[in-house]
Amino acid sequence: MNEQARHEAAQVAAVAAAMLEDAYFGQANYRANPTQYNALCEQGDEVLNRIRAERIAQDDKWGPQTHHPAVWLAILVEEVGELADEIINADDFPKGEHGAALRVVAMRTAIAGEEARDVLEGFSLNGSG
């Protein structure tokens, strides 16, 4: 994986971490308030701990994973599709014109996740794939 791809993967992880921070701890204007920033850093540690725990659970379930970046991308798309499906069905999904546009994006993402799952079913994900 080249440097730009590593950078893009880090951005994906950062957005996922920010989403978890909002979900678990609420939104904080940490730029305007140093106290909130310090609290967010502590909360970020909790988010990272949750991510580490998920990785351990994945390794326990699937064994150590080493894949080509294209396979990791398919796995990521499949997981994001599952997340999109959950978000589409949330009671607090945005309403109005903006909400309708977001729903289209979320639905397309959910479909992409289903397609990725179908492709991945043809691979052995234990070990390198």
Description:
- The chain is mostly helical.
- Helix content is 75%, strand content 3%.
- The chain has helices at 3-25, 34-62, 69-88, 96-120; strands at 65-66, 127-128.
- It has a two-stranded parallel ribbon.
- It starts with a helix and ends with a strand.
- The model has no long low-confidence stretch (mean pLDDT 82).
Key features?
129 residues; 2 strands
Blueprint (SSEs and pairs):
Elements: H1 3-25, H2 34-62, E1 65-66, H3 69-88, H4 96-120, E2 127-128
Parallel strand pairs: 1-2
Helix pairs in contact: 1-2, 3-4
Q: How would you spell out the order of helices and strands?
A: HHEHHE
- Lateral arrangement of strands in the main beta sheet: 1-2
- The proportion of strand residues reads under 5%
User: N- to C-terminal separation?
Assistant: 15 Å
Total of DSSP H or I helical runs spanning 4+ residues: 4
Question: If you compute it from the alpha carbons, what radius of gyration comes out, rounded to the nearest whole angstrom?
Answer: 17 Å
Structural class per helix/strand content? Answer: mainly alpha
Largest sheet: 2 strands, parallel
Q: How many runs of DSSP E, i.e. beta strands? A: 2
The helical percent reads over 70%
Quaternary structure type: single chain
Question: Could you report the average pLDDT, rounded to the nearest whole number?
Answer: 82
Which word captures the global form? globular
